Amino acid sequence: MHLLSPFHSCYASAVPTFQCSFSQADICALIGAGHVRAAAATAIAFLACHPIGAKGDECMWGPYREALLEAGALRVLLEAALAPTEDDNCRKVIEKAAAVGVMYLCTVVSCCV
Questions:
Q1: Domain definitions of the chain by residue range
Q2: pLDDT tens, N- to C-terminus, the chain (113 residues)
Q3: Contact 45, 98 (CB under 8 A)
């Protein structure tokens, strides 16, 4: 399982953190830390978003989408949505954030895969 580390002032610097892997013990601990996974999934979805104020076809582009795809964000979001979570409220946030992130990333998936 991969997780987005805390944000830096430059969002682009967050992209390489998808490369960070966790041990099996860490993964088991994260199952009980749904709030951490919810925050990470929400951050990824935010990075995949279009520029604030975009309208119409402008929404089909996001400045970090290609880099996120190349870093494995689509897989990360799907894993987050499918992994068990003890807290039902966190599960709902994770599922919604993952769905939004996947939707944004799918707008450019054909150019990057």
A1: 11-112
A2: 333 333 333 344 444 444 455 677 766 666 667 888 899 999 999 999 998 898 998 888 899 999 999 999 999 999 889 888 888 999 999 999 999 999 999 988 776 55
A3: yes
